[in-house]
Amino acid sequence: MHKKKDRRCGHAWRPILLLPLVPLIFSACQKSPEDMAHQMEVMDGRTAFERYCASCHGPEGRGNGPVASVLTTPPPDLTQLKNRFEGVYPSEYVLRTVDGRHQFLAHGTRQMPIWGNIWREDTTLGYEAEVQRRLNALLHYLETIQE
Asked: Exposure check for the chain: N or C terminus, fewer CB within 10 A?
């Protein structure tokens, strides 16, 4: 007769494979609700960027999107905003640019869509607070891609 092998012994090494994940799991458990909310906001901002901005600014925000070459004014490299503003991320400038309050008069007509106005006209959003939430999420995502 054949003896049955104890299968538990052959799999004893499997928990060892999970050891590299322990710090990651532990750090996720240590995040405050505010950190988690900010992380979710950044993820929402990335989604908005990919949907509304990447065609001109490129998937990484470097100004090399698929339609950038046909624009009169090339889109800026959004990863360099902090460097262009002496090491400080220009959140108010970015917000005013995205929502349409900042006009680039030297560039002539504005080619970039005014997302604040477009989102305000979107009846599915419902109210100004949602538009502001969307603008803030995009603003915070752009801050995370600064070099």
From this structure: N
List the structure tokens of 75.
């889109």
CA distances from 31 to 17, 34, 40, 56, 133 (A): 24, 8, 12, 34, 22
Mean pLDDT value across the chain: 80
Cβ-based neighbours of 108, under 8 Å, separated by 6 or more: 72, 73
- b/e map 40-56, b = 16+ CB within 10 Å: ebbebbbebbeebbbeb
Question: Which residues touch 75 (CB under 8 Å, ≥6 apart)?
Answer: 56, 57, 58, 63, 65, 68, 112
pTM of the model: 0.68
Q: Which whole number is the average pLDDT over 133-145?
A: 93
